[in-house]
Design goal:
alpha+beta, 6-stranded mixed barrel, 21 strands
């Protein structure tokens, strides 16, 4: 307690030093606690599901059918239960007010056994509810229960009109049942909603999840499922060829590529804390040198070196605790800022908060940092002799060692700042490259909206075609619309569209090894609406109608893959499973590739075809795109009314401009680059502050020497060179270590880069120049002060 009181009195006598130290520490602790709150919430916090560590997401190349799930359950011994489900299935809610699009999950009854979540009210559906032609039932989410029924308990048993089907609410699921963050409104039985999938072994887009038996591991399950996959491949080669199952832990599936970006961010703020600690160690070491009279008096009065060391450690811990307390407070604001910066698709976003593990982490880091930065001056005390404290107060023993230690500390700050600045520079360069990446289409002034026609009234081709043609006609009449069109899958769609195998006339392929392609049926002048260039041949015309010779437009990737070095025009292709045998489409054009799913990936192999010439009646979904003469965002209401004049029960979903879609695609890289740039900027400021503090301290300690030099005729320019030269020498030393360290560490962010090499010379040169310029400015102030020193006043004070 005596040391604590002394430390607090010392802090009060040096308010400027104390404020600088506390704010520096608060910056480091606050940044680390804020980032750790995100890391904990996304990566480390257990999922809010019973036995979540035994849940595995079952993935494979290609889609999963319900019959695959039946076989997996029969053959697997590693899984206690397995369930298939369709994520983000669309339901149209009608019957009162404007129609509304709801997000649902179509699942097998085993789904709730796997996830282990019980309803708040009512019951889950079972095998008796999961039968073709059975009554429509649904479980609603807690959020929808609140919004639609005001949490009334009599919601169970009420009827909703979902996609024209009266559906009975049988239960209410808690909020954590939507653990995949799909904004789920309801869950329904698979056999009732998707009866066509019950007996079909093919492309059904189902996902799968399983609960491991006690003692089973993901690796054991993976080996077992590979063997089962090989067995199914042999039995059903047409639908299961090369479809190998790979279970992964559910949390691993959920966090995906975010894991690496978060650990990179965690490392960046760790660098900031390390620089802050080094900075404070430098300040405390400099202050301990100025306190030699105090240490001499303590030693003369019988204080041991350990007693003096203990005082220094307590002083450092007091500063750390004050900075840590302020830092934890800043973490609340920092966490909100990070979430505001993060893309909307951040996994487990709702679970991120400053909770007790974050506070415990902040407290641990505070104590560790406090001991670390106060240990360096304490070590110098331990290494000194007691008699040194009684020497002349102006030439203290070990002062040269302190100067060398201070120099190394400042150089290390420059090294750490260099590594962090180079990493942020590489990510900023990636962000700039993505902003200028060729899209293959023009997103400006284009509004898109997804539409799905209910199967009950639009189950056949004729009503589907009629509805979309009338909708496009109404959309074209909206004031301000230049061009309206329709496509099943627009650019930058996560799944890239529905695909099939393609047959090529006069070409033979091994069974089940025909080239695959994504189908993109279009209606209206789609290529003009999105300004996708037709690089060869022609676009579709009004003559490409139903009953006319079938035509197709392929993208460049498909043309290069099938007909390298020759023209694709005139070639004849067909969908293997979607067209009557002997029916062919003639390729009349080649369209430019577009960014199909992400900005960093290319286009998939794609075949465009007139919507009116399709054969599949299930293609009752798609996206309307309208190019505006002005602001596309102003067309939202007009587009809804255009649809509702054709069918007032059909809602629109995902209404956004293509510029907004592009912004969403670039958001993860933008967030990483911005966050890392902020922390790199903080590191630069701390490093510059440390360099300035060192040189200011050196000038103050060498006042007599400088005064003597000036009295003997030294010029101001020589003193400027003396001070600036030392500072720049430390900067060069820091850069000499920092650049190779950055080269070694940049490989860790290589997966986050796009068209930027981890050793990009422009970034390295720019960082080196920026650091050198900042260091020069930091050196200039104390150098100018030394050059203006009055030698007579300095010598009189001696």
């Amino acid at each position: 307690m005596h040391e604590i009181r002394s430390a607090l009195r010392l802090a009060g006598r040096s308010p400027g030093f104390t404020a600088l130290a506390v704010l520096t520490m608060a910056l480091g602790i606050g940044a680390n606690a804020a980032v750790f709150s995100v890391v904990y919430g996304v990566l480390l916090r257990p999922l809010p599901l019973p036995g979540a560590e035994r849940l595995a997401f079952i993935t494979r190349e290609g889609d999963v059918s319900l019959l695959d799930g039946v076989d997996w359950r029969a053959e697997s011994r590693s899984f206690e239960s397995i369930a298939l489900f369709l994520r983000a299935w669309a339901f149209d809610l009608s019957g009162s007010g404007e129609p509304e699009r709801l997000r649902g999950v179509v699942a097998e009854p085993q789904y709730f056994e796997v996830v282990g979540v019980r309803p708040l009210l009512g019951r889950v559906f079972g095998e008796e509810d999961n039968r073709v032609g059975g009554p429509h039932v649904a479980l609603i989410s807690e959020r929808f229960w609140q919004r639609r029924f005001g949490r009334a308990r009599d919601a169970v048993g009420q009827t909703l009109i979902l996609s024209d089907n009266p559906t009975t609410v049988i239960g209410v699921m808690p909020a954590h049942a939507d653990f995949l963050q799909d904004d789920v409104d309801l869950w329904t039985p698979a056999a009732v909603v998707t009866p066509w999938a019950v007996g079909e072994r093919g492309t059904n887009n189902f996902d799968a999840m399983g609960r491991l038996r006690n003692g089973a591991t993901v690796e054991e399950a993976r080996a077992e499922m590979v063997a089962i996959s090989r067995k199914l491949e042999a039995a059903y080669p047409k639908t299961n060829r090369n479809k190998i199952v790979e279970p992964i832990a559910l949390v691993e599936f959920m966090v995906g590529d975010v894991r690496r970006a978060l650990w990179v961010l965690c490392g960046a703020v760790g660098f900031v804390l390390l620089i802050a600690s080094v900075n404070l160690a430098s300040l405390l070491l400099a202050r301990s040198s100025a306190r030699q009279d105090e240490f001499a008096l303590r030693a003369a009065l019988g204080a041991s070196r350990w007693r003096i060391v203990r005082q220094l450690l307590v002083e450092g811990l007091c500063l750390a605790v004050m900075g840590g307390a302020l830092g934890i407070g800043l973490a609340w604001l920092g966490t909100d800022a990070l979430l505001a910066l993060a893309p909307e698709g951040l996994p487990r976003r709702a679970e991120v908060a400053v909770q007790w593990p974050v506070v415990a982490f902040g407290a641990a880091v505070t104590v560790a940092a406090g001991l670390a930065f106060s240990a360096i001056p304490a070590i110098h005390v331990l290494r000194g002799e007691a008699a040194s404290y009684l020497k002349s107060g102006r030439v203290m023993g070990g002062d040269g060692a302190r100067q060398r230690t201070l120099g190394l500390l400042v150089a290390s700050e420059v090294t750490l700042a260099c590594v962090l600045l180079i990493g942020s520079g590489l990510l900023v360069r990636t962000f700039l490259r993505l902003q200028g990446v060729p899209l293959g289409f023009d997103p400006s002034r284009v509004l898109s909206a997804q539409i799905i026609l209910p199967e009950s009234r639009y189950g056949e081709k004729a009503p589907q075609t009629s509805a979309f043609e009338r909708i496009l006609q109404r959309a074209q009449e909206i004031p301000g619309v230049e061009t309206a069109a329709y496509v099943t899958t627009p650019p930058l769609s996560p799944r890239g569209g529905i695909g099939n195998r393609v047959l090529v006339q006069d070409r033979e392929f091994p069974p089940n090894q025909e080239p695959g392609a994504r189908a993109r049926p279009v209606l209206g002048d789609y290529f003009r609406a999105l300004r996708i260039p037709i690089v060869e041949g022609r676009a579709f015309t009004a003559d490409d109608r139903e009953g006319a010779p079938r035509v197709a437009i392929v993208n460049q990737r498909f043309a290069r893959q099938l007909w390298p070095g020759e023209s694709a025009l005139g070639k004849r292709i067909a969908w293997r499973d979607w067209m009557p045998e002997g029916t062919w489409m003639e390729v009349v054009g080649v369209a430019a590739d577009v960014k199909a799913t992400t900005l960093t990936g290319g286009d998939v192999q794609a075949v465009y075809m007139p919507y009116v010439q399709r054969d599949q009646p299930w293609q009752r979904f798609g996206t309307l795109v309208v190019r505006a003469r002005g602001d596309a965002g102003l067309l939202r209401r007009g587009l809804r009314e255009a649809v509702w004049t054709v069918d007032p029960t059909v809602p629109l979903e995902d209404e956004q401009t293509l510029d907004e879609r592009v912004a969403e695609a670039i958001a993860p890289q933008q967030a990483s680059a911005f966050a890392l740039a902020v922390f790199a900027g903080a590191a630069l400021l701390l490093a510059v502050q440390g360099l300035y503090a060192l040189l200011a301290y050196a000038v103050e300690r060498r006042r007599r020497e400088i005064a003597v030099r000036m009295a003997l005729g030294a010029r101001s320019q020589e003193l400027l060179r003396l001070v600036i030269g030392r500072g720049m020498a430390l900067t060069v030393l820091g850069l000499a270590v920092g650049v190779p360290a950055a080269i070694l560490m940049s490989s860790g962010i290589q997966s986050l880069l796009y068209e930027v090499e981890p050793t990009d010379p422009f970034t390295y040169a720019l960082v080196a120049v920026a650091l050198a310029a900042a260091a020069f400015l930091a050196c200039a102030v104390p150098a100018h002060r030394a050059a203006r020193l009055d030698p007579m006043a300095a010598l009189r004070s001696e």
